[in-house]
Amino acid sequence: MLKSYLKLLENNKTWVAEQNSIDPDFFSDLAKGQSPEYLWIGCSDSRVPANEITGTKPGEMFVHRNIANMVVHSDMNLLSVLSYAVEVLKVKHVIVCGHYGCGGVKAAMGNKQYGLIDNWLRHIKDVYRFHSKELDAIVDMDARERRFVEVNVIEQVLDLGKTSIVQNAWKKEQPLHLHGWVYDIKDGIIDDLNVNLTCTKDLHSVYHLDNENDHTK
Ligand code: CO
User: What is the pTM for the complete model shown?
Assistant: First the structure.
């Protein structure tokens, strides 16, 4: 068990040989650069591997993962990934993909203290508060948890739209679509929650950001 990591290095050698046998130019082509069409924001959960469940290959998807697929507007990691993906790579689609059975969402529903992670879970608890009327009314706890996963994804998509990064891209008429998906660990199926945002007008006006220094008006 101590050396279980060695298996990974062995697997890597096998994978390299396989790729080279399928396409001798595979690695030299990838080394030239990347132009992925998609940015994936998903959960760190080991059961939700972004490329595998979407059938995408190296070079096709820019990926950011954290606990419960959150878009936290003070998270430099998320913002840097989003900025690079939108402004430099010019991805056309940003996908927030949550998943049923999410440990982060489940923990955020409860009151147990977990330590440092409680500070991260706070962001998810805020989503519960926004939707508490709907969520509290769901008596079945599994159903409530599933709906919480869904509304959390919807809120993260809205949070993407609130960023200056996304709004400036829209202002420049750069094609950029935001999507909210949910993956079911039990059957492997991804459902589209149809929260597609394509322009600033889809957001509450308080979140609209103008380029001009209109604070002086
Ligand atoms: Co999760």
Answer: 0.94
Segment (H or E) for 195: none
Distances (CA, A) of 80 to 61, 91, 166, 167, 195: 16, 14, 12, 15, 23
Question: What tokens appear for 70 in the block?
Answer: 């959150």
Q: Measured between alpha carbons, how far is 116 from 69 in angstroms, rounded to an integer?
A: 17
112 pLDDT tier (thresholds 50, 70, 90): very high
Distance 122 CA to ligand 1 centre (A): 15
The pLDDT, as a whole number, for residue 197 is 80
Ligand 1 center from residue 69 Cα (angstroms): 7
104 and 153 Cβ atoms separated by less than 8 Å: no
Q: Which residues are catalytic?
A: 43, 45, 47, 99, 102
| Location of each CATH 3.40.1050.10 domain in the chain | 34-204
Distance 123 CA to ligand 1 centre (A): 14
User: What does the mean pLDDT of the chain come to?
Assistant: 95
- Architecture of domain 34-204 in this structure: 3-Layer(aba) Sandwich (3.40)
Compute the distance from residue 67 Cα to the ligand 1 centre, in Å.
Answer: 6
Q: What is the pLDDT of residue 212?
A: 64
